[in-house]
Amino acid sequence: MKIKIFFLFILISAFWVIQALSIDNDNDLTISDNILNNLNLNIDQTKKIESIRDKSKRDILKLRYETDISRMEFYDEIKKEKSDKTKLDSLIDKISEIKKQIMKIKTASILEIKNILSKEQYCKLYKHINNIRSGKLKKKGLNKLIDNPTASDQS
Fold this sequence. Notes:
Number of domains: 1
Oligomer: single chain
Helix content: over 70%
Radius of gyration: 20 Å
Distance between the termini: 64 Å
Structural class: mainly alpha
Order of helices and strands: HHHHH
């Protein structure tokens, strides 16, 4: 009986870790087509931004595929009679590292796009990103962390 309870505890703990890793909180930096239309971009800006978005989407899709494979390996290892803790730890580290890479790609693409936009266009974009972020922070009760940028502090 104690072995079953222990195994159930390990299984629930593992699912909790996987759930924590699978929550995709990096959508703050997603730029939708709708907001791009509201920025009044010229043709050259549109082409450059689409190029940046396509490249980052392609890279992120590859990384998310790797994340899914790692999660499947994690589940397979958990289902085994005797799970290898070091393998589970390495899979958790791998998933975390991939999440960091995705965030870095999104941040780099935002910085590239920032260099293409005028100050006014960037302020509109920042307000969009901030609205998404503030909605998530309000749900968590952290709305005091929301800042309000102006065109003067953008470089």
